[in-house]
Amino acid sequence: MNQPSAPHRLATAFRVTALAAAVCLTAAGCSVLGGSESDADTGTSGGGMKVALITHSADGDAFWDLVREGAEVAAAKDGIELTFVSDPDPAGQAKLVRDAVADKVDGIAVTLAKPQAMRGAVAEARAAGIPVVALNSGIDAWSAQGLLGYFGQDESVAGRALGNELDARDAEHALCVIHERGNVAVEARCAGVRKAFGGLTENLYVDGTDMDSVTGAIAAKLRQDPTIDEVVTLGAQFALAAVDSVDESGSKAKVATFDLNKDMVKAVQSGDVQFAVDQQPYLQGYLAVDALWLYRTNGNISGGGVEPVLTGPAFVTKKNLAKIAKFAANGTR
């Protein structure tokens, strides 16, 4: 859900071979679910299945690298030809869904950061008989749009959990930094913080595609209002920018964030960031792709088609950092 740089369309397709499946089984510790023994040995249990993973991400965001990594591991396990494409512009993302329909893929996994913009394209996919699941964004929209399932975090729940944590740390005035106006997921996070936090919460909208402007905007706000004692960001890279903002402004505010990456592990360890709320993007990508394979292979529907499959929130603090750091280092957290 993070948007740090200019729009792009990234497309990668790979066809799984016996070697790729073997690498998955030995290096990632995964196993093939269902199918015959020969299917497991050859990595062809997907039967030539083609899946498109279509997100609203922009170029250069490590968060989406984790989503993609999880999706690719699931595809390797299941013998799927996976294509990863993205466009932060909602009209562009909708076109990518229509392109996948025209390509006659066997399944689509899609983010719904701007649900209304995606409604028509998703309906066209369903009308073409293509199963569709949602991940990461759109927990309040996937069911109404007739998707098979949702894999991600309930952002309102996560926001309330963070607000409660701020209360436990005796914070009084939180600045919630929104890096993409109109993205339902990030807006829900700050709304959740506001609902649970006993102190004052105010939002600051910044241009998440320009990190220098993010740092400057937060620093300016902190200089303007010295009562702010907590900066809450909605992505790991924005938290690191906020740390610089605090230093630049001379503020005594502390920083907390949603989402995790390798650099954030170091920031929590050093105390530059108090804690991170991890939604496990690797797991989101993995489960979304695997769910489409399970549906085609066994008719399985995660959550019964009515309940989301939650991947967070999971708090990362100094107390549990040692258990998580090794997974963050190898790109699975």
Q: Quick gist of this model?
A:
The protein is 45% helix and 17% strand. The protein has helices at 18-28, 37-42, 62-78, 90-102, 115-127, 155-168, 184-196, 211-224, 236-249, 262-270, 281-298, 321-329; strands at residues 12-14, 50-55, 81-86, 107-110, 132-135, 150-153, 173-178, 200-205, 230-233, 254-258, 276-278, 309-312, 314-316.
SSE topology sketch:
Elements: E1 12-14, H1 18-28, H2 37-42, E2 50-55, H3 62-78, E3 81-86, H4 90-102, E4 107-110, H5 115-127, E5 132-135, E6 150-153, H6 155-168, E7 173-178, H7 184-196, E8 200-205, H8 211-224, E9 230-233, H9 236-249, E10 254-258, H10 262-270, E11 276-278, H11 281-298, E12 309-312, E13 314-316, H12 321-329
Helix pairs in contact: 1-3, 3-11, 4-5, 6-7, 8-9, 10-12
Question: Explain this structure to me?
Answer:
The protein has 333 residues and is α/β, with parallel strands linked by helices. The protein folds into 2 domains: 12-153 and 280-312, 3-Layer(aba) Sandwich (Rossmann fold); 155-278, 3-Layer(aba) Sandwich (Rossmann fold). The protein contains 12 helices and 13 strands. It has helices at 18-28, 37-42, 62-78, 90-102, 115-127, 155-168, 184-196, 211-224, 236-249, 262-270, 281-298, 321-329; strands at residues 12-14, 50-55, 81-86, 107-110, 132-135, 150-153, 173-178, 200-205, 230-233, 254-258, 276-278, 309-312, 314-316. It has a 7-stranded mixed β-sheet, with helices on both faces. It has a 6-stranded mixed β-sheet with strand order 8-7-9-10-11-13, sandwiched between helices. The radius of gyration is 20 Å and the shape is elongated. It starts with 11 loop residues before the first strand and ends with a helix. The relative contact order is 0.15.
